[in-house]
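User: I'm writing a tutorial on reading structure tokens. Could you give me a worked example: one chain, its sequence, then its tokens, then a sentence or two explaining what the tokens reveal?
Assistant: Sure. Here is the example chain.
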Amino acid sequence: MIRGGYGIFYDPPRNGVAGTVASGFQGFSQTTPWITTYQNDGVTPWARLHDPFPGTGPNQPIFDSQKLLSFVGDSVQAPFRSIHATPYEQSWNLGLQRQMPGNIVLEAAYVGMKGTRLYYGGAESFNHLSEIAGASQSQITALNQQVANPFNGIIQSGALSGPVVPAYQLQLPYPQFTGFAVDSLPVANSIYHSLQLRAEKRLSKGIQFLVTYTLSKSIDDSSGQGLTAWLAPGGFSSLQDPNNRTLERSLSQFDATHVLNISYVWELPIGRGRLLGRNVNPWVNQILGGWKTNAIWQFASGQPLGLSLSNGQALPTYGSQRPDLLGTLKKGSGSNSNLVNQYFANPEVAVAPPPFTLGTAPRMLPNLRAPGVNIANLSLFKEFSLGTFREGMRLELRAEAFNALNHPNFCGPDTSVNDGSFGQIFGTCSAPREVQMALKLYF
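And here are its predicted structure tokens:
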């Protein structure tokens, strides 16, 4: 059988003008602290439930009542109708499926996806300098110098109310704001290709299994941050040059080249009416018969590693520096357990770049990954018939072992250059072996 398909899936806007999250955006929402004692003295009762905001009432949203002076001197963030296009994803697949003897189905499929105008975590700010990568040390020094603040006396509080400000503040597109950002800019792109294999046997003759294997590659501009942080726990936001987002294109933080899953259920063919011991004594059958085992085995490549830099000196209003790579950073030889003190074979090739420059390391390294996943969850079941007491009544003994082989699945190494522990592994990402037993009565 040949199957194929194509679809386009649109993502609804993350937030409307007032927001769909717990609070709306500036100008359309306000927060009023509830002070339960007079002047917050902690003694005199104040602001009872029947009149929670005596005298003033809750603070009202300002909307556009202050016109161009709205939130001057503060940081603002809101969606922009002209900027927030609708993100969408195209998905396509083509597969072959074959029914084999023994209730076994074999399937091979190609699956691809292309994301367009996806939300770009970490790229929300519009209040940054134009392209200054490659500027001289004297030019950067001049940008960081303190100069007279033209907003002094006009802005009454905050970072822009003092007598001086950094020179670069006055060269920003919106110098009257400490920050000017949109909500999760939809400008990221992604591409995914995979070969997916499946072998499945439906339950017959006491055996059922499912084996799946995926060979894949995922590339994007931004992943594991912002709205997609759940895909790559511990993921980081990386945008060195806000004027050149294409520098961030790399493997996805959640990319896993190989993923193999094996699961099965096997009713052991031992006992009365089974292949072995077909006519065994009923009392003996209570011991030898009714055994069943199942398992879930998981094997997966580790996620790509991305380097960061401790105590870097980034360009003003730009993102954090990444390190320079003087050569190809490589993994050390031997098992992961032998690499906990230094995961990399040549850590000296990752160095801090000169101050106020862009590091040469990509967002995610194409050749280095964290230790992968190798874990097995096993279980054993035994049923005892209690039909003499009641029809269909039975007792089930269950023994289950999670990470049954007690295999250590190490977390990724420290990838922050110049922090004193670069390349060291500090723990495992899976629990040690855990065994539990239970009795279950069916009646």
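What the tokens reveal: The CA atoms of residues 340 and 425 lie 5 Å apart. The longest strand covers residues 186-204.
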